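re: ur question from the group chat, yeah i did fold both. here u go
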Amino acid sequence: MRLAILNTVREYGGGEKWAISIAAALTDRGHEVILCGQPNSELCRRAAAVGLPEADVLLRHDLSLPSVMRLARLWRRLRPDVVLACTQRAVRLAAWSGWLWPPLRLVYRNGLKGSFKNKVYNRLIAPKISFLVANAAATQAEVLAYGWLPQAKLQVIYNGAAPPQTDPDAAIAVREEFGCRPGSTLILAAGRLVHDKGHHLLLQAIACLNATTSAEDWLLVIAGEGPQQAALAATVERLRLGDRVHLAGFREDIGALYGAADLLVHPSRREGAPNAILEAMAAGLPVVATAIPSARELLGEDAGCLVPPEDAPALATALAELLADAPRRARLGEAARRRAEERFSREASIGRWEALLTAVAAGEPLPDLTAPRRPKSVVG
């Protein structure tokens, strides 16, 4: 199978991390994968850095005829069996390009609830989409409710997470880097610093926690970068949280941060299926998250602590309770690890993607995606 993965985002976040990961995994399984992104994008840079084939293509607004023509020329050159579009702009421009390159077989990965809207322009491109794959059932249900994309074209494939490589020395080094003494609790938040991730809500909760938990020894590390970084730094200073909160920026050693942390907090307002929650679960960390549908879906009834969205006092209370209850943290962390292993393994996710994409490439009926599967066809 020859697969082109199309992403129009210049920055690097969870969706781009997933694209690199699935490209590497499918390449290891014998498929030919090309990552297609904007010129000078982080996606293309990182793909080249790890030895993955990449192609840049300038893509402007969704109705840009020059962008559509560039894509059609790219498909004629690459001759992909399937194009996997990973953003709204990517799927719309790729769909329009199908009128100029008729062999197009298009799969759309919808990774964010509320992003693929019930709009006329999406209805127009729907016939060009072979499958829309959501990374959470809540996202799939949202699109299904529109009534104009058939259920047979909708699938759910969770992102999947593998247990992190354990390196006790690296974890110790991370704790020392942030001044987290032995016996103290390190709270981790991981994700791009954007409005949807809810970091301002988290800082409000931390301010409440700081005022009511003088006996506990803890600190918060926020790993990530993004447009809200300066505003968050100003809020930390305004709330006088400098001795409690560390804005760590983007970290290549995120596995070491999971190894060093005692719990993950994820205060999102809107998500698909949060990679940070899945990765924390695979690492055996207890999770405190806002009760958005996808977080409820991932954590279930007993693998985490859910609080109402936009409720900083409730978030502070949940954190305070876990800080004071190490045995409960251990129970939640073990339940999260088991749930990640049983329901959201990386190998299962890769197998389901491989089965779906290979079937689309061959024009065959979709196989059962409820279990990992290795299709017979490999490189085409």
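okk and heres the other one u asked abt
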Amino acid sequence: MKFTIRRKELLQSIQDVTSVISSKTVIPILSGLKIDVHANHIVLTGSNSDITIQRTIPNIVDEEEIITKMEKGSIVLPVPQFPEIISKLPEDIVDITVGENYKTVISSGTAVFTLYGQNSEEYPVIQHQQVEPHFSYHIKQLKSIIKQTVFAVSSMETRPVLTGINVIIKEKEITFTATDSHRLAMRTSRLEDSSIDEANIVIPGKSMQELQKVLDEKLETVQIAILNNQIVFFTDHLFFSSRLLSGNYPDTSRLIPNNSETKIQIYTRDFIQTIERAALLSNREQNNVIDLETKENNNIQISGKMQEVGEVTEQLPAISVEGNELKISFSSKYMLDSLKAMDHETVIINFTGAMRPFVIKTPDDESILQLILPVKTF
């Protein structure tokens, strides 16, 4: 096996697939990076048995030759050594040749490295050619949805199902929900031309974070297939599969209040900056809890207090404040995560009392919803 390739293209694909490779895998061969050389392309594969990522590099891109001198073959090379070598090579052209006993010579300019690879026959077989997509999805929209929900998954393994994003397909609508039982993030959108009518699955949050990194926004859509215990995403040059989490995801719809006693509309950026300042003097061991209080003339007051250190109070003009007077405490971290995920100039916050969950939305988009549980301090 041998090939000559431009270093930039090789390095980008290596970085995409090696992000999931772990030395702690129970399958030793998965601690390496698999390379397959075909007649007119090469395929790089990385896996940790939960997530598998494949990148295909064609030999010609935009009528420009990327790979030359190709001889078919397959090998598994050690990680992190192989990626580190490629990243440090002195020239843009890389020659890779595999000889007897999988001895691999990597050369570029005056630099020559030798690595000892492994037989790829022990590597798990990935049958992605046989996967038929159930629907396609706009890549920019999918990446936006991941950003708006994945931060709310639980980091605690005591309830494994909450470490994932619940995806429900029903009546031509797809809903993504994440919660750690203290906050909730939900995003809904229409689903066109789907061959699957209903689905209720849980995708690990870590898988969605990795998918967000490797999806190329230059492409318009990604194909998606839901299988028995995994979900698959693929484009012309990317194959991404993830196992699904087992267990019943809680019914979160009952957590969302239908009414509000106090409604605040405010400029998102100003609100974020005020909360960040208040969080400087709040208890970091308790999620930086701060207080919000409505004041006269459409003002709100944000304050933080740190015992034996100091306190801060700041008034902020809102666009509007409607309903009952309110004094409430909440995690500044949770609020900042939600506001930054909204990505909108203004937000509307509906409160149902000092000890009830409150909902954050944007004025003109009902498809995105954030919910946060307050903290009892009064």
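fwiw on the second one: The chain has three domains: 2-122, 132-243, 256-372. Helices lie at 7-18, 81-88, 139-149, 205-214, 268-279, 332-342. idk if thats what u expected
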